[in-house]
Design goal:
Elements: H1 11-22, H2 29-73, H3 75-83, H4 88-117, H5 129-155, H6 161-164
Length: 165
């Protein structure tokens, strides 16, 4: 219930009186504002966190698919490399570099787009430099993990495929 005080009454005194009289929990306006704002911020943070998790999963799937497809297109070249004695570590490094390059390009395009498009949106989201740095490393980690499927497939290639067909 809401209580409107008449002029001259102290909110804390009235709150304490109600607490004793009815054994109720009483909040003053500043206390209630603090509770509501704290809950709003916590709820928004959870929503943004879930959005970021979903976005990371979708991004990983897309990057994995792209890297896998690019690796499948070069499967004969990979077989030739294995045939001439290229180490698995070198082949894996090439695929990883490709995935990280894709991540760097994607991050750069996203950062530039977000910077120039921000004024066009009704709500401003402040991104601190450390947020951008953390985002960059998250993108690199996602790309590295997404490349593991293609690396695994490339390392299983039989060098005889380069000769046979």
């Amino acid at each position: 219930m809401l209580v409107t005080l008449k002029p001259g009454h102290a909110p804390e005194e009235v709150a304490e009186s109600i607490r004793r009289w009815k054994r109720l929990t009483v909040y003053t306006r500043p206390q209630m504002e603090k509770i509501l704002i704290g809950k709003l911020i916590a709820t928004s943070a959870k929503q943004i966190g879930m959005f970021l998790v979903i976005l990371a999963i979708v991004s990983a799937a897309i990057v994995a698919f792209i890297i896998y497809t690019l690796t499948m297109d070069k499967i004969r070249e990979i077989a030739v490399l294995k045939l001439i004695g290229t180490k698995n570590r070198t082949i894996a490094a090439m695929i990883l570099q490709q995935a990280l390059a894709l991540g760097i390009i994607g991050f750069a395009v996203g950062k530039i787009s977000a910077t120039y498009a921000a004024p066009l949106f009704p709500k401003y989201v402040l991104l601190m430099p450390q947020d951008s740095i953390a985002g960059f490393f998250a993108v690199m980690a996602i790309c590295a993990l997404a490349s593991l499927i293609a690396i695994r497939m490339a390392l299983r290639v039989d060098p005889a495929e380069a000769i046979g067909g």
